[in-house]
Amino acid sequence: xxxxxxxxxxxxxxxxxxxxxxxxxxxxxxxxxxxxxxxxxxxxxxxxxxxxxxxxxxxxxxxxxxxxxxxxxxxxxxxxxxxxxxxxxxxxxxxxxxxxxxxxxxxxxxxxxxxxxxxxxxxxxxxxxxxxxxxxxxxxxxxxxxxxxxxxxxxxxxxxxxxxxxxxxxxxxxxxxxxxxxxxxxxxxxxxxxxxxxxxxxxxxxxxxxxxxxxxxxxxxxxxxxxxxxxxxxxxxxxxxxxxxxxxxxxx
Length: 252
Prior knowledge:
The chain is of the alpha+beta class. It has two domains: 3-98, Pseudouridine synthase I, catalytic domain, N-terminal subdomain (Alpha-Beta Plaits); 110-246, Pseudouridine synthase I, catalytic domain, C-terminal subdomain (Alpha-Beta Plaits), CATH 3.30.70. The chain contains five helices and ten strands. Strands 1, 2, 3, 4, 5, 6, 7, 8, 9 and 10 form a ten-stranded mixed β-sheet that branches. Helix 1 packs across helix 2 (74-85) and helix 3 packs antiparallel against helix 4. It is globular.
């Protein structure tokens, strides 16, 4: 009988083609973990994540699960896994043995992404792959107005990539918070689920409005599915982080 383990994971998206394994892109987080677990246990396994992050997108709090045919201590999976993951761009933060009913993706009640903006006049060599440098004044009132317009249940057809496979473009955005940290702004988005590239496109639209590159009318038209199909600017992947996955009675 197999045993299911939940994994709390952190990774630098710059190392990978994204979470999901693809034949043409072998450097995925999923494939890296599966290869490491084979080295550790000699078992061929599949690792399933709560969120399929794109190429370049980071994770502070990704959650995944994996089934092993044998029972291993949490210490072996944690220490042994991280030994083989050294310098790979991904590390395991914690391990739990969970019920087989738990599924990293389908058991999730909510997902939290954050986007970091660098808003000072000069770029940063230290944050070049960690934040989006916006070299224009950001008007906080307009940024807050944009957040209010996006919150709630809406048709986000214009806020998804053309390759998005979701059958329904309606999503409920529970929260958007804006944290001013001096030279940085941190935007947080919480919802049960997001469309493909929705967070990056919402960020792009919010920043363009707050920098007065588009008008409030143009921003509101993005939320009108019957418009001419124009989509907002997609913010760069390197400023986006999967920060947290929320479950019922399950905390890492």
